[in-house]
Amino acid sequence: MLPARITIISSDQQIASHVQLRLHSKGCQASTMACFDTAIGVFYADPPDLLIIDLSVDIECGLGIVATLRSDSFFSVIPIIGLLNTQDSSTIDWQHCPLDDFIGLPLNFNELFSRISLAASRLKRIFDNNPLTRLPGNTSIQMAIEAALGTPTAVCYIDINHFKPYNDAYGFSHGDEVIRMAARIMFNTVRDSGGGFCGHIGGDDFVCIVPLEIAESVCKTVITHFDMIVLDLFDDETKRRGHYYGTNRKGRKENIPILSISIGVVPMNMPKLQHAAKVAEIAAELKKLAKDSNHSHYVVDNRSS
């Protein structure tokens, strides 16, 4: 799917009009600009979803506009595709040319449309993926859950127990490593079990979607590996006691148990599941039940309706 609003900057009116017309035929709002000098001002007033800039006439000036936009944190994320004379592409230092993509002239419009779609999709992935674990984020998670509704799959919501006290006691860098570790364990387990979807809701909350028939074995494997690896984070005395002295969520000092995980497993072929919000609601109930245990545990919703 193409972005809704695209701006074309070109001093060649024929190229600009032709591209604009073809984009209009695809349902895009496409505007043209002939003057490089006014481009920055227009961008600040009304930024598009994607920029196509013609570098075939004045490449230095065009790249100057690109560099200016990239230096601004607000505009730096807008995808930019350059139009180049084919012979010029071999002379550009791409390390210092912050384009997202380019296409050679004369234009092949099917290729241009594909590159526009790829640039937009790439941006969605970058913004959706969690920067710490690089797993898909909430937008992708919701889409994956909606796609799984009514199918013989299970959505497994994974939560690290007692994470905040650990983060406060041992520091953010150690907390980040716990999150990365949990993500790796989940991802590797799902992959080794035959594949599925893995996502990072945020913080210490994760989701995986796997075939229903292997959901419990996936949960058991995740728990086994987590409980084994997490011991490396604590000294022998703490491991022997099974807890350390820290601050709970209410700000009170108490003995905090060693990290564990809770998993709520929601079969997706239940008639009561009509939307993703209901799945999250049931998963929250299941995770709460799992947390009642003093160790890593998973709970499956076995209600049929």
Architecture overview:
With 305 residues, this protein is of the alpha/beta class. The protein folds into 2 domains: 5-128, Response regulator (Rossmann fold); 138-300, Alpha-Beta Plaits. It contains 10 helices and 12 strands. The protein has helices at 13-25, 39-45, 59-71, 109-128, 138-148, 163-170, 172-192, 215-229, 236-241, 276-291, and strands spanning 5-9, 29-33, 50-54, 80-85, 101-105, 153-161, 197-202, 205-211, 243-247, 253-257, 260-267, 297-300. The strands form 3 sheets. Strands 2-1-3-4-5 form a 5-stranded parallel beta sheet, sandwiched between helices. Strand 11 (260-267), helix 10 and strand 12 form a beta-alpha-beta unit. The protein is elongated and about 75 Å long. The two termini are 37 Å apart. 31% of the residues are buried.
